[in-house]
Amino acid sequence: MAKYIGLRLVQSVFVLFGLSILIFFIARVVPGDPARAMLGYLATQDQLQAVRVEMHLDKSFPVQYYYWLRDLFHGNLGRSAYTKRPVVTDLVQYVPATLELILFATLISLVIGQAMGILAGYFRNSWFDGVSRLVSYLGIATPSFVIAILLLFFFSQILHLAPSVGRIPIMTQAPPIRTGFMVIDSLLAGQFSTALVALSHLVLPAFSLAMIHIAQEGRITRSSIVENLGKDYITMHRVHGIRTSRLVFKYLLRPSIIPTVTVIGLDFAFLMSNAFLVELVFMWPGFARYALTTMLNKDLNAMVAVVLVIGLTFAVVNLLVDIVITFLDPTIRIQRRGG
Amino acid sequence: MRQERKADFLATLAQRRRTLAKGWYKYSRNPLSVLGLVLLVLIGLAAGLAPHITPYPAQAGAYTDFKNAGRPPSGEHLFGTDRIGRDVFTRVIFGYRFSLLLGIVVLGLGVAPGVVLGLLAGYHRGTWIESVIMRVTDVFLAVPPLVLALAITAMLTPNLLNEMFAIALLWWPWYCRLVFAVSSSMRSQFFVREAELSGASEGHILFKEMLPNCLAPILTKMTLDMGIVILLGASLSFIGLGAQPPTPCLGTMVADGAKRLPGEWWSTIFPALAIVIVILAFNLVGDGLRDVFAVEEV
Amino acid sequence: MALLEVNDLRVGYRIFEGTLNVLNGVRLSIDEGERVGLVGETGCGKTTTVKTILRVLPVPPAQVQGGEILYRGEDVLRMSARAARDLRRREVTAIFQDPLQALNPMFTVGTQLRDILKESRAGQDGGRLRRREIEKRCIAALQETGMPDPERIMTNYPSQLSGGMRQRICIAEALSREARLLLADEPTTNLDVTIQDQILRKLDELVDEKGTSVLMITHSMGVVRDLTQRLYIMYAGAMVETGKTKELLAQPRHPYTQGLMKSVPRLTGEGISDGIPGRIPNYLEPPSGCRFHPRCEHVMPVCKEAIPSFYPVDEDHFAACYLYRS
């Protein structure tokens, strides 16, 4: 088992290197002057030249890559042309905000998606099944930004209920930053009302993100439940008199959520990319919005760092998912051992 | 000899027709799939005949008419007018044109190389060829497609052509991986070994023996992908990286209209609905295809 | 009163093209302590019968169209779901054909065995069993079936065990609850020939010890000859002949049974027969009257009209055939 993890880690490292080369290549090959992007219109030629030398733009491509790598190992990801700060500082500030959003969205999609899928599968062809199918079809077909806009429109303009933008209202005092997660930090600082407000700000954007996954995971779970209901061993459990609640929540559930867990890794990647759109609509001060801004401004250092962070997160999540599946499904464990 | 070949040809044709008929029968059993197909045909026709069926084709391009700006849906303007006076209905139909074009070009450019590379990787499984191809694929797939598409498009000048090129560039790996999975499992099966032993060329094995077995998942994925590509395109233009104004792009329309909510809801809602309907249609058809190709269990 | 009495059971399955009328008036009875055999070809409805008795038929596609199943006088079909479940927990149990599919691959043998006992309410006054007691009984059940090292088996997953061992576990599961009636649906068909005998003999031993009544379903004449006292022959959803095993096998009366006996290859001289001409009926549109009539060499006009009832052909020996009507 440990060997397997080790192998996967090594593989991921190679892939990340490849990714960094790819992005680096694209970034350097493309038209536009990064030095000017850094300094703005009013820079003089001397200033531009100085920056070019500092960013090693006058050297050849492999040399540039080498310098970048070397800096990377010193924890230096360069300076953002847009915020004028070290990229690392930017990342530390913005990543937790997006993480909070994405984790909350994953939680929502798991809870609602699974519940929907299980009920739809167990009571197949009932009205609930029909309704959830409809919801699923629409959920998959509707882009996250459309859902975001509709939710925003509906809740804040018509119902005047949930707040529209940002993580907490402008006038509210933010808690001291410990984890970067607004809700947790507020709780830690004893500011319960702030925590509540922060949570309410999380709901709409997280739901916009989660919608498509609720739809997809719900369907996968449903068909998995339907398939497993027909299995002989479920009939055998009934024959032996196992009561229905134990049957469903223990014996039926475990094989049925495995396909969903398999998909969560891929879904996480989609969550990250949809975060770009949702953060834009809700003006969420997160990593995705930062990434978007850096890309639109051709901010090279930040862009490369951003892509790498995303790639890294994706790789880590996939590895975690694999480990969880191995625990859930003993047959895989046995297979891996070669038994 | 000629007679033989002709008879063979006719027989194959008849067989193909029978398979198609059976496939259609199976497909048509699901009313949702048929609905999807109907929607697609309607959308396709509308997009194709756009200049002829829309009431104000000129308004799809550069056009301003501030006197008529911001009018709600009415008899003259089915979907109302947007903030500079253009007929939303016309722009939506033309928007479909660009969305469909995007999908077709991206898939046209991206599928073929992906499939070929996947076949090669699967056939040469276990060799350096497979390793190289699949590692490169892994790199492209290490990051969600929207992010890569954003990165690439952002760095080039944002316009429709670059958008298509960028997405096509990162689309081939999905097909490579799909075909690799299917072809590498086929690799060890008898019919491949037989072909090898009888001296068939690699090209023949790849394209005449292995490829036909991959066609079903490829076709299903392509249909579903049309929906995904259109969604991706809408997302990009929502951000502002797609086709630039005055080109009518559904995502851009949603973004523009969103600023006017709740007041002029029609300039956002209708393009948004249009996006949802076209993606839904492709999803329904794709699901229907998947059911047709699935092996039936008694 | 018989332990189990099935009268005129009719069951159908709804499928896209129509209804499969599988069970067409099944009747059978089992007394306390009896070992009854049920012989029939694949597809004649044996498993459906068992599942209906246990009330584990998947009821949307399946539907019970008529008849009654009396367990100690009470109609199983009309009981509440909870009563039916209690019946399964304490009185009636079953073993099926495919031991691989019968065990949940994601949980250990121990977990599954323990859960069965937890739910069985086999403690004093029908109360719950305590953990140590459960553990003891699980190990005992496994040991009884002849498993070596039961403690280790409890920690294994089904996929780590051989087919014979898995079937022993199924037997242990079934018999761990001291049930009164065991429905054994072809328990050894899927096992290696070398193991079949072992398992059957072990099963025989166990039911003897516990005094359990058994319905032994099989398509092998050899098995019924050794293990059963009475026998039913089933064809296309109905019973065609019944009687004491020895007598029936020695003197089969129903044309179908006669055909079956002839199909069994014998070591002594007659060579291999051609089997019975024709095929089992299509349940969507089954033959009218006696479902065997299209294949029967003694067919008469009356056979097509209505299904024959059991006519006595000997002492304690009945055949459902118009040949024996008078």
Structure description:
The complex is a heterotrimer of chains A (339), B (298) and C (326). Helices cover 77% and strands 0% of the residues of chain A. Chain A has 339 residues and is an all-alpha fold. Chain A folds into 2 domains: 15-73, no CATH class; 87-338, Orthogonal Bundle (MetI-like fold). Chain A starts with a helix and ends with a helix. In chain B, 45% of the residues are buried. In chain B, 73% of the residues lie in helices and 0% in strands. Chain B has 12 helices and no strands. The model of chain C has no long low-confidence stretch (mean pLDDT 85). The longest helix of chain C is centred in the middle third of the chain and has 18 residues, at 193-210. Chain C is built from 11 helices and 12 strands. In chain C, the strands form 2 sheets. Chain C has an 8-stranded mixed beta sheet with strand order 6-7-8-3-9-10-12-11, sandwiched between helices. Chain C has 326 residues and is an alpha/beta fold. Classes of the chains: A mainly alpha (339), B mainly alpha (298), C alpha/beta (326). The interface between A and C is medium-sized, with 26 and 32 residues.
What does this entry show, briefly?
The complex is a heterotrimer of chains A (339), B (298) and C (326). Chain A is built from 14 helices and no strands.
Characteristic key phrases:
heterotrimer, A: 339 residues, mainly alpha, MetI-like fold, 2 domains, 14 helices, C: 326 residues, 4-stranded antiparallel beta sheet, 24% strand
**Which class do the helix and strand fractions of chain C yield?**
alpha/beta
In DSSP terms (H or I, runs of 4 or more residues), the helix count of chain A works out at: 14
Q: In the residues of chain A, how many domains can be counted?
A: 2
The H/E string of chain C reads EEEHEEHEHHHHHEHEHEEHHEE
Q: What percent of residues of chain C adopt helix (DSSP H or I)? A: 25-40%
Amount of beta strand of chain C = 15-25%
CATH architecture of the largest domain in chain A: Orthogonal Bundle
The low-pLDDT segments of chain A are none
Work out the radius of gyration of chain A: 24 Å
Class derived from helix and strand content of chain A: mainly alpha
List low-confidence stretches of chain C: none
Overall shape of chain A: it is: globular
Strand tally of chain C is 12
* CATH topological fold name of the largest domain in chain A: MetI-like fold
Number of strands of chain A: 0
- Structural Rg of chain C: 21 Å
